[in-house]
Records
---
Amino acid sequence: MNPERLLQSAPEYLAQRHVLTYMEDALTQLLEHKDDLEPTDVARFFADYFTSVSQGTHVLFRDYSFVQCTPHNRASFLRLFWRCFRTVAKNGDLLTMKEYHCLLQMLCPDFPMDLTQKAARIVLMDDAMDCHMSFSDFLYAFQIQFYYSEFLESAAAVYQELLTGKSLNTVIVPTSRSATPRHRQPFNDSASLEGVEAPQFYQCLENVCERLRHSACPPLPLLGEIVSSAPRLTFYGFLMALAKHTGINQNIGALPDKADLLVDEILDSELEKLVAQISACSITQPPAPCPLPPREIIRVASPKKTLPSRRRPDLESDGSAEETDSSENS
Amino acid sequence: MAPDWLHTGIAMADRRRAAGSSPVPRPPQRQTSGADFLVQAGVRTMMREAVLKLVETRPEDPVAFLADYFGRLGPGPAGGAAAADLCPQLPGQLRLGRALWYLKLAHHSQRTAFNNNLTVAYDCLSAGGKKKKPGLNGKLYTDLLTKICHEGDLPKEISSALLKKIQCRDHEAVPFDVFRYGVVTCFVMMEFRSKADTLFNILDEDSQSDQRVCQTVLDTLKEALVASDLSVPASYLEAGSKLGPDCLAVAMDRALLGKKTGVPMSRNEFLKEACSLFLDKVKPMH
């Protein structure tokens, strides 16, 4: 039992767990489908909705604004992405950034390109952006870029500030402002040191986490562990360490450890069963069209609706196409 | 190629797609405005009650709680009937299930939430079927307690001993106070047993639960529980201090120093002994 939640005020509790976001979305979805629903179905609809949120399938085919709006949604999306495309990794295919972006857009049509680009940059270190990447490299880099995007943005800004030495001289006279970085840069170069000093960077990251209390941030102890591994670090080094850290991955809780990325016995056995089923069915008898003939007969038997019946076949076939879709899926 | 986990997602997504692009000419009578639909279905009340229940219960996982909550609500009638008002339409077994669900929404230490749920459950049970007069009779009350004990995995012998003490006669009317006492006793009993189970795990750490040590612990427990007079508030403190680490540790130490019997005590035996201590303290109804 976590007593903290019992001490929170009601609005705090609801806000911390994004309950109102989901209730609002449930209502929006309900209104979108109100014409297909009886008023008595509403409880069932809400139950389905919240079950889907709980299982993390609710972000499938949704707008980017919704997909990214809560940590749970982000984790759900990462998990979906992994589960839908893990065969890519299984086949050992290497894809380019653009190809990964297309995969992302299959799940979320308006997924922004710049996020994919940033994730690819973590893997490819800024050079040769059209290189091929393995699924797992991209996935873990994409995970931290997507899940911690606000945090990383602030961290990058802080890093730049440290690099140009702005926050070292907190009081800067306007005239000397342009001089300071120029002065610092050669100093760094002369010492042939890359990046910034780790303890200072960690301090700044602490502030960032404090500031972004309402967005997802990596836990401070893990950040400390990553940052303190070397006396100095570059931002890309930091991002890579973050992407490869198993503790961070477990903390997000969306993806398995790298070693288990391809292991999914349940799915595998189910897939095998399905493949066997489908191949058996296609030889003996087609499974889906069975319920169709009676409907056709009914449609023909109603001669009154001449005009609608002309339009109906195509939309019925539309519906039946979806049926075969889902029966293949099941 | 999608297994179970995708079903709900695809179902929801299909609905979305269907709503967005389907050229289905909708029957005119169904084209209500959004606001009308919400009023008709009583969505406002439904949502309000869900949020209230949620805030009252404060579950760790609110989304799963809501999924379960709306799932239990069932196909309620339009017009936003309160959840408790839905009960009369349900037959006996369903009402029992519904009442039990309410009772399990919040842990009994969450006083306000649990008390509210108790009231709702009581109202739900006593609403009466078509033929029956309103009010809770002893039979339904006993059924409920049996179900609580059963779902709490209480062994048969313990639960029947407990029920013997707190049940009413089948035809008797059960007032709220009695109902409350019975239900709370069941829940506390189950928690007591699980605590005793944890205690045994500690004693049995290397699978060497010496009977003497176990017996000493039980005796200390007994002394603390049985000797105390529950009507005197100070006795709770006294019982607490008797079970404090100093007293208990001294007693255990003494038992360990003494000659080992070498006879282990089984978990069942220990739990049975512990539960009988609890049962002694349960005030009988009759």
---
Amino acid sequence: MAETKIAVYRFMSAGCNGCDVQILECLVPRYKLGELGIEVVFTPEEANVLAVTGSLNIKGAEELKKAYEKLKPPRIVVAIGNCATTRGIFSEGYPIVGPPDRLIPVSLYIPGCPPRPQAIVSAIAKVLGAHLDEEEDYWKAPEGFRGRHEFDVEKCMACGACAQVCSSDAIEVSDSDGKRLIRINYARCTFCGFCQDECPTQAIRLTREYHLSTDDKETAYVTNEVEMLRCHICGSYYVPSEQIKWAIGRIMDKVAAYRDLRKRLEDAMQICPTCRRKIGNIENAKRLLANLTIKTRKS
Amino acid sequence: MPRIVCIGPYKPQLLEPERFQLFVENDKIIDVNIELGYVHRGVEDLFTKRTYMQNLALAERICGICSGVHTLCYAQTAESIMDVEVPDRARYLRCIYMELERLHSHFLWFGVLAHTLHEHKVFLKVMTERERIQALLEYLTGNRIHYLINTVGGVRRDITPKKAERIRDVLKDMKDLSNYLLMLLNNDGVFVEKTEGVGVLSRSIALDVGAVGPTLRGSGVKSDIRRDDSYAAYGEIDFEITTEDEGDVLARTRVRARETLESIRIIEQSLQNLPEGEISVKPGEPLEKEEIGRAEAPRGELIYYIRSNGTNIPERVKIRTPSFANVFALTEMLRGDNIQNARLIIESIDPCFACTDRITIIDRNTGRRQIWG
């Protein structure tokens, strides 16, 4: 029996209640919450830990503040799920005023959509300094589980297709200093796996890692950086070099007639779109275009 | 002068926050006022900001219990907009996934009921067993709650013989659980004593207020979208629509308990008759039209309406969730009953407020009302 007795009060506003079901599942005997000294209570007055789920809407905001005031010290707030961490998929919703850490201090975030009960129990045990035996089979996520992302650095060409299909705007693409940075915010992700399905080079993989709890949500990122190509004329960075190689490879594959023109194509593609449109380059472009047209006719 | 008793929003052990104002005279509820909105997220508005595919993830997050059927209903409606025919194998697979979801939803509800009746042993038994379905769904689809298994044009993951074996394995135990629960409901005990004659909803009122799902079937109306407007492979599968005539909490409970057995039968048949072939097809371009799709969620009839303007982003999506339809029946059930039973009656419709919350926009100049979910 752990010494600290923890009484958890669950607060939910503007979520899908998936996380609430997971909290309920933590009560199943196999997770041994009782042995850790954890208890779920039904009024904030009895509790010293507040478990917040959901992205918090206008109506819930006042109630959340009230519930927080009523807590017994040490007044620990745990944000469970991605909505409570970053508002998740509901970020642009008109009644949403969250995430809860805008109103009250949050000490621990447990990202996941929803987090597995194992993740919740393990995160709480970690905070308590309790040892959990995570050997049993049910602690391992099954094969095909959609957990935290992982980049295959060799394959990723930073084309940004993942950001296009992302269902909750969790993937950011930003260019600076000749490098393109892809940042996946797994505290905002829905773990739908669209990025994994759509990646043209199979560079993103959703792993079986689900222990994502953190006390600083700014660290909840998976990133990859890729070198960019400099335009031969104006010198500005405009596209990741790997993406150009991939594109040329695809053209060579698909159109047999262009195979002899590889060198010329490579040259043309090393010029940024702005420069390509400039008067000075029209001559070059025309020549290339003419060559291509002739080739096509021949084939 | 009637006494006003408030239940909620954050006080009782309801899974979700909602506020019930009960007007009580001599311990009898004479009227009820339901205040919605604590779980409102403006989902229908968010639908018009994403592409058809991205909306799948959003549709799922309307509800954390019947998440799968939301994607199914949305996908079916989107399929009629894109004029896609779903492969046969996918139709059967959809049945399997959706019935597994119905099982875990009904068992969860049973756990909540046992909790309300202070039957801690039953609560723990049901929750422990139910967790196995959740683990099974996680194994089949990759997530415990938000499976995202249905997609526009089919399903995303196949069931291999190995997986089918595991499903059969779990179902065997679930059958025992269902029978155990039915035994509790048929023998005298707390479950019968406390629920019999409570929160009666007569057949005619149930039809008048437009109740759906187990709430309606508990009042003796044989209505089930799986049969009435069959989708997926339900038209080719043999199953029974369970009804009870009493219309009280016990009847609704029995309907759900017997339904779990039917769900198990549906899954077994689907696994047996699973056709070979593709599991999904690539959807075409969205056509410029409007469509309505229906499906039977664990709580009743779910309706999706989509209006398309030919782009890859829907122009308007409207959702009628089963709990929203049942809330009106709830008012009728509460009226005239004892205040002590209020919580039991509220739980008996298996309310899902995450689905229900709406906002009414009233145009000040014209007085025109618009309801957004």
